[in-house]
Amino acid sequence: MNLGRYQQGQTVTIGLAVVDANGDPASPITAPTAVITDADDSVVASLKLAMNGNSTAFALGVFLGINYSLGTYTVTYSYQSGAFSGSASDTFTVIPGGDPGGRVISLYAYDRPEARYVVAQLTSGLILQGRNPRL
Asked: What is the pTM of this model?
């Protein structure tokens, strides 16, 4: 399934509903894993999914930072439910635009005699500082 188109700095939610061999909802033995690969089949990330509401649904938000260049990515899920080994896959595309640092989530401005300074934190965790010399 195609999860959509995203820009760098956005978050894509990957998720999985665990089923048994008959297609009925089932609880896995351990948390399902998700492996994200690029168009060249290089592994970009290998993640464990978290429960999303009940013991058969799993999801995780993935921040599309600098590791995600433009292109299509494949997410391959795998899990074990009893004797059944299940797998599934999704795709998403990173399109031009956005900022790999993400958006500003925290901002503080303070005045000094020489300028007004601004400190900002981005969703990637990056801290930026800037100044405006005019008061």
From this structure: 0.81
